[in-house]
């Protein structure tokens, strides 16, 4: 990998933390909203980082980027979140070069998700790559890698059963409600927050609870009204949140706030209430558990719910891994091609210089010299020669590095800079 010349002088790293070692509180410390991601990208640009992609979901926060040392990327993360380097070191992972590539494939393909086959992360990666490109922080290597991961993800979705069945954080939350609350179809359900997880949860609530007493609240009311319109649900103003909580039997919190939006002081009713916090950072303060009528459940607990669907999915892991290896092999082939592409380009220029000099000589010698035909023939010969060398360099049985040095020496090619 070090010899692929994918960067001028840096290594490719994946640094981050996930549900595997970091609990919800720690993940919350390193969570990045859109403004945080933008600030991180701007700082990376100012620091001369060549290429960087940052993602932050409820299950993980990761940076994929080029650096001389991973601490450059860790510092970027800590500078733009509430997390500290000490916290990061306790729970984090750092992958380098081929291991970083392999990690991105597993994450993007749903094999590293908290719920196996949850493909939410691939859209996050795609959107993050677009943001990096806008900031001039997506080099050809990173862009090609993201596209390869997207390709693997699509194939796994269509060629395996990894994502079959309804299993996700939003489905798991509804499944928990169904198992925990009697007569759910006649209970008052309040959903606070209508982002992606909120929307998915709302759809699952309508589908599985057969409940028409679902109320939606969102800080931006028109967003809630769009969702409510699809299912004929009630929308209330954010100002009515406390009042609506007092009526609720089940409260689902799925907001994107960086600080808790629900605490014990907002709960005035003494009747039993089940609160599900689907947010990272946590949006429900743990002090609500001081109230005897409150049962609080966080998404980390919900994600541990396993059922037959997940067991069936596990059977297709080997097939998914074989698809990843196939796509990864294609990507590595592209990397190898990039390794010798500058030399082939320099060789082509050298041969073109030879041809131009010879054409000039023949032009002076022959009055009836057919320049167009001679140029066509010489270009075809140059193309065949460079193709021949390229095929030779792709041969697994030869040493590419030795062949490249020999070509440079024989044709006296200028040293090339690989990017």
UniProtKB/TrEMBL annotation:
Keywords: NADP, Oxidoreductase, Porphyrin biosynthesis. InterPro entries: 4pyrrol_synth_GluRdtase (IPR000343), 4pyrrol_synth_GluRdtase_dimer (IPR015896), 4pyrrol_synth_GluRdtase_N (IPR015895), GluRdtase_CS (IPR018214), GluRdtase_dimer_dom_sf (IPR036453), GluRdtase_N_sf (IPR036343), NAD(P)-bd_dom_sf (IPR036291), Shikm_DH/Glu-tRNA_Rdtase (IPR006151). Residues 15-160 form the Glutamyl-tRNA reductase N-terminal domain. GO terms for biological process: protoporphyrinogen IX biosynthetic process from glutamate. Residues 180-305 form the Quinate/shikimate 5-dehydrogenase/glutamyl-tRNA reductase domain. It catalyses: (S)-4-amino-5-oxopentanoate + tRNA(Glu) + NADP(+) = L-glutamyl-tRNA(Glu) + NADPH + H(+). The active site is at 58 (nucleophile). Residues 320-413 form the Tetrapyrrole biosynthesis glutamyl-tRNA reductase dimerisation domain. Its EC number is 1.2.1.70. Pathway: Porphyrin-containing compound metabolism; protoporphyrin-IX biosynthesis; 5-aminolevulinate from L-glutamyl-tRNA(Glu): step 1/2. NADP(+) binds at residues 193-198. It comes from the Bacteria. Substrate binds at residues 57-60, 113, 118-120, 124. One of its GO terms (molecular function) is glutamyl-tRNA reductase activity. The record marks 103 as: Important for activity. HAMAP family: Glu_tRNA_reductase (MF_00087). Belongs to the glutamyl-tRNA reductase family. Possesses an unusual extended V-shaped dimeric structure with each monomer consisting of three distinct domains arranged along a curved 'spinal' alpha-helix. The N-terminal catalytic domain specifically recognizes the glutamate moiety of the substrate. The second domain is the NADPH-binding domain, and the third C-terminal domain is responsible for dimerization. NCBIfam families: hemA (TIGR01035). Catalyzes the NADPH-dependent reduction of glutamyl-tRNA(Glu) to glutamate 1-semialdehyde (GSA). PANTHER family: GLUTAMYL-TRNA REDUCTASE. Homodimer. During catalysis, the active site Cys acts as a nucleophile attacking the alpha-carbonyl group of tRNA-bound glutamate with the formation of a thioester intermediate between enzyme and glutamate, and the concomitant release of tRNA(Glu). The thioester intermediate is finally reduced by direct hydride transfer from NADPH, to form the product GSA. This is Glutamyl-tRNA reductase.
């Amino acid at each position: 990998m070090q010899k692929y010349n994918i960067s001028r002088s840096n290594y490719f790293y994946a640094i981050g933390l996930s549900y595997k070692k970091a609990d919800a509180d720690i993940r919350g410390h390193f969570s990045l909203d859109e403004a945080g991601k933008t600030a991180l990208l701007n700082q990376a640009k100012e620091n001369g980082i060549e290429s960087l992609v940052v993602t932050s979901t409820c299950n993980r926060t990761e940076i994929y980027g080029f650096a001389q040392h991973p601490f450059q990327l860790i510092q970027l993360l800590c500078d733009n979140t509430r997390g500290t380097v000490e916290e990061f070191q306790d729970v984090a992972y750092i992958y380098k070069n081929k291991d970083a590539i392999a990690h991105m494939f597993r994450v993007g393909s749903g094999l590293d998700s908290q719920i196996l086959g949850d493909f939410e992360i691939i859209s996050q990666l795609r959107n993050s790559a677009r943001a990096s490109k806008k900031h001039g922080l997506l080099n050809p290597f990173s862009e090609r890698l993201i596209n390869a991961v997207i390709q693997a993800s699509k194939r796994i979705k269509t060629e395996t059963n990894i994502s079959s069945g309804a299993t996700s954080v939003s489905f798991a939350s509804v499944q928990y409600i169904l198992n925990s609350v009697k007569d759910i179809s006649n209970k008052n359900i309040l959903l606070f927050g209508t982002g992606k997880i909120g929307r998915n949860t709302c759809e699952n609530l309508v589908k599985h609870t057969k409940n028409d007493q679902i109320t939606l609240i969102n800080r931006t009311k028109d967003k809630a009204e769009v969702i409510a319109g699809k299912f004929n649900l009630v929308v209330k103003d954010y100002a009515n949140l406390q009042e609506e909580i007092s009526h609720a039997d089940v409260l689902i919190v799925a907001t994107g706030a960086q600080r808790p939006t629900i605490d014990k002081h907002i709960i005035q009713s003494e009747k039993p209430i089940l609160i599900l916090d689907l947010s990272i950072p946590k949006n429900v303060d743990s002090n609500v558990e001081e109230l005897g009528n409150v049962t609080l459940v966080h998404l980390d607990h919900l994600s541990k719910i396993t059922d037959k669907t997940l067991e069936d999915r596990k059977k297709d892991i080997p097939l998914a891994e074989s698809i990843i290896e196939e796509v990864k092999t294609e990507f590595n082939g592209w990397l190898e091609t990039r390794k010798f592409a500058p030399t082939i380009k320099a060789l082509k220029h050298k041969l073109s210089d030879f041809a131009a000099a010879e054409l000039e000589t023949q032009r002076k010698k022959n009055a009836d010299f057919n320049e167009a035909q001679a140029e066509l023939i010489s270009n075809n010969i140059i193309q065949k020669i460079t193709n021949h060398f390229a095929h030779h360099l792709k041969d697994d049985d030869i040493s590419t590095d030795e062949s490249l040095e020999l070509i440079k020496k024989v044709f006296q090619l200028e040293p090339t800079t690989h990017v």
